[in-house]
Amino acid sequence: xxxxxxxxxxxxxxxxxxxxxxxxxxxxxxxxxxxxxxxxxxxxxxxxxxxxxxxxxxxxxxxxxxxxxxxxxxxxxxxxxxxxxxxxxxxxxxxxxxxxxxxxxxxxxxxxxxxxxxxxxxxxxxxxxxxxxxxxxxxx
Length: 140
Known about the structure:
This protein has about 140 residues and is mainly alpha-helical. The chain folds into 2 domains: about 5-95, no CATH class; about 100-140, no CATH class. Helix content is about 55%, strand content about 0%. α1 (about 5-15) runs parallel beside α4. The protein is elongated, with a radius of gyration of 19 Å.
């Protein structure tokens, strides 16, 4: 069984987070080590960390498919420093806060989808598939 240490968490993060998202493997700076040691004292369940980091890695939101903090247009991406700093980040992730959700269409998209369904009929895509196509989201 693995021992829950800052190094273990770093290795887990680097093994699960796509390099395309984080640009390069995360590093364990002194500041991050101190913060992460505090997080590990607060949350010592290894399964929580494994599940939480796996959920962060699979979340479109955490991988940058969002409109940025407060809608500023600059996509926010989960990073190792965020995981170390935020007392509740790992719990929130493990609980599913960042899990992918069904897309919510705008009122304009609803109207356009109805026109599309009337035009195409039985061969029409589901609303979520149509939204994914329209918004350029490709399911993994």
